[in-house]
């Protein structure tokens, strides 16, 4: 297994693969895009400490996500934005009703977070093309094949791999949900509105720190127990079995980003 860690992102018409230094996107029409990635932590190593690094990492994740979001098909972006608007229209009044009818408390907050999470997943599933989930599966299969030392140009070898991956963002999202469900105060007004925001930042940073350790030791019983929820979401919702053409696209994206790593280090 190579020491180059590869991640990815699925699109409705292709797959993006990324390493710490580079990214590469391959689409169904044969077009490709690629570029370099830099992190603030590379230039400020003193900030690479517990909690602070996770806040920086989260900000960079959002920044990169917005950057790649613009590369999606315009029609797909419009569809997703419409459904996000529907989600906000549903959840904003629902959160107020929860507070009005049931008050505040650990159990109420946990139930509300669970309902919000399920509604968000339903919204995303409606807002994204079904093909994005099969491309997501192709992305995972290609990365798993690479990490298992298989031939990443062999479609059959890639198809034999699992579409479930330990480092998938779905696992992180599930972990964030669990931590935020422990205690997430309802938004207030004035200064009281600041605390929920601070708690959200805290929950995200702690989730990222915990996730770092879980993926370092994925075979530990505690890691397997915590990651189980996210893996089931991958299995039944956020990934689907890809066809061979989608696997080929994911393989090409993976080969391209690895080639960039090879030539860039010379």
Written description of the protein model:
This protein is of the alpha+beta class. It has one domain. The protein has ten helices and four strands; from the N terminus they run E-E-E-E-H-H-H-H-H-H-H-H-H-H. It has helices at 40-43, 52-69, 74-102, 106-127, 131-147, 155-159, 169-182, 194-216, 221-238, 244-264, and strands at 7-11, 14-18, 22-27, 32-36. A four-stranded antiparallel sheet has the order 1-2-3-4. Helix 4 (106-127) packs antiparallel against helix 7, helix 5 (131-147) crosses helix 10 and helix 7 crosses helix 9. The longest helix is centred in the first third of the chain and has 29 residues, at 74-102. The mean pLDDT is 82.
- Note poorly predicted spans: none
* Class per helix and strand makeup: alpha+beta
If you average the pLDDT, what whole number results?
82
| Ends apart, CA distance between termini | 21 Å
Q: What is the C-alpha radius of gyration, as a whole number of Å?
A: 19 Å
Number of strands: 4
Question: What percentage of residues falls in helices of 4 or more residues?
Answer: 55-70%
Output the helix-strand order.
EEEEHHHHHHHHHH
Largest sheet: 4 strands, antiparallel
Number of helices: 10
Sequence of strands across the biggest β-sheet: 1-2-3-4
Domains (count) = 1
The geometry reads as: globular
Strand content: 5-15%
């Amino acid at each position: 297994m190579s020491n180059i860690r590869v991640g990815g992102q699925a699109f409705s018409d292709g797959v993006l693969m990324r390493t710490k230094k580079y990214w590469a996107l391959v689409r169904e029409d044969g077009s490709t895009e690629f570029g370099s990635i830099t992190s603030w932590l590379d230039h400020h190593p003193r900030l690479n400490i517990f909690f602070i690094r996770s806040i920086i990492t989260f900000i960079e994740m959002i920044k990169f996500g917005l950057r790649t979001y613009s590369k999606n098909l315009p029609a797909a972006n419009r569809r997703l934005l419409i459904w996000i608007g529907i989600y906000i229209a549903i959840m904003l009044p629902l959160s107020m009703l929860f507070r009005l009818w049931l008050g505040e408390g650990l159990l109420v907050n946990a139930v509300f977070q669970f309902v919000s999470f399920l509604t968000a997943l339903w919204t995303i599933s409606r807002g994204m093309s079904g093909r994005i989930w099969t491309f997501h599966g192709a992305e995972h299969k290609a990365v798993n094949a690479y990490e298992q030392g298989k031939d990443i140009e062999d479609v059959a070898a890639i198809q034999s791999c699992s579409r479930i991956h330990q480092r998938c963002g779905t696992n992180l999202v599930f972990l964030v949900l669990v931590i935020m469900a422990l205690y997430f105060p309802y938004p207030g007004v004035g200064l009281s509105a600041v605390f929920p925001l601070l708690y959200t930042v805290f929950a995200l940073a702690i989730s990222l720190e915990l996730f770092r350790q879980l993926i370092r030791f994925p075979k530990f019983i505690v890691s397997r127990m915590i990651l189980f929820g996210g893996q089931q979401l991958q299995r039944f919702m956020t990934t689907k079995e890809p066809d061979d053409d989608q696997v080929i696209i994911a393989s090409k994206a993976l080969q391209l980003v690895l080639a960039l790593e090879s030539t860039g280090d010379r």
